[in-house]
Specification:
Helix content: 25-40%
CATH architecture: Roll
Strand content: 25-35%
Radius of gyration: 16 Å
Pfam families: DUF4442 (PF14539)
CATH topology: Thiol Ester Dehydrase, Chain A
Number of helices: 5
CATH superfamily: Hotdog Thioesterase
Order of helices and strands: HHEEHHEEHEE
Largest sheet: 6 strands, antiparallel
Organism: Solitalea koreensis
Number of strands: 6
Protein name: Acyl-coenzyme A thioesterase PaaI, contains HGG motif
Strand order of the largest sheet: 1-2-4-5-6-3
Shape: elongated
InterPro entries: DUF4442, HotDog_dom_sf
Number of domains: 1
Length: 162
């Protein structure tokens, strides 16, 4: 389903697994090539050390590259199914303040994925994202491996039941 950047932003803002972890989608950039997400530190996501719970940080990194690709290809009328295949999370320093995550794809990333989808029918690649605190320090680095598979014309695309 083709949606605008603003519509996806608002849908994701109130998606319960993100909302209750205090994960707020700030924006999706033009043509879904970027996204910015903020994790607000609160009693809902604080661990016993007073820092942001690692599961919250992982939840903030999980869906965004897949969603970005899904919308990019929906606008090109290419039906895909995709999700996070794997992730590697590296905690660099305690996250004592709110965190910001910035996701970014290039036109070359999109072309590479489209080529693989059109030739072999699937695409798998890892993309990095950093969680940065209010002081500009990198607290967490997550490598998110995206899996996408091209669907045939008669297969139903996930997420079309809105």
């Amino acid at each position: 389903m083709k949606l605008s950047e603003n519509a996806v932003k608002w849908l994701m803002r109130f998606y319960p697994p993100l909302f209750f972890n205090r994960i707020w989608v700030k924006n999706f950039g033009k043509d879904f090539l970027t996204a910015e997400v903020k994790i607000s530190k609160s009693f809902l996501n604080r661990n016993y050390n007073g820092t942001i719970f690692g599961g919250t940080i992982f939840s903030a990194a999980d869906p965004f590259y897949s969603i970005m690709f899904w919308q990019i290809f929906a606008k090109k009328d290419i039906k895909i199914i995709g999700w996070l295949k794997s992730a590697h999370i590296q905690y660099k320093k305690p996250s004592k303040t709110s965190l910001t995550l910035k996701f970014s794809l290039t036109e070359e990333d999109v072309a590479e994925a489209e080529h693989a989808l059109n030739t072999i029918g699937k695409f798998v690649k890892a993309y990095p994202v950093e969680a940065i605190n209010k002081n500009g320090e990198v607290c967490v680095v997550v490598s998110t491996e995206v899996y996408m598979r091209k669907l045939s014309k008669d297969q139903k695309q996930a997420g079309t039941n809105f």
